[in-house]
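User: Here's a chain of 133 residues. Predict its fold as tokens.
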Amino acid sequence: MFSALFYLCSFQYCFIFSSSFSVAPEISETPEDLTTVEGRDVAFSCVVEGNPSPSVTWTKNEQRLNFTANSRLNASSTNNNHTLTITDVHRSDAGQYRCVANNSVNTSTSSAAKLEVYCKYHRRRGTFELEGR
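Assistant: Prediction complete.
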């Protein structure tokens, strides 16, 4: 909680009041759209503030991400900066990603960041062929 000290003084006495207050989560920097080729790593980030300090989760296409079930996903936080990293991106990772911040006051959800994933190309005999077709 944020704390503030207030002073109220009269002719002979001075009183000090302490006040604490909570603030709903605010996402001041939202994730940005990304385009990549399968097999590379990508990272979405957001900056979140609030009091008490919000917890941050990530969603893909409105579904909460399961970091236990997918070892290619990693969420990390340093101070108010939160990052979702996807390693060895697959075409199935394409979609809309959001940062969701929650504390005892409220929940805040970022705008969607689109991940586009393109196929790898292999060069054969002077032409490009799509891998996987």
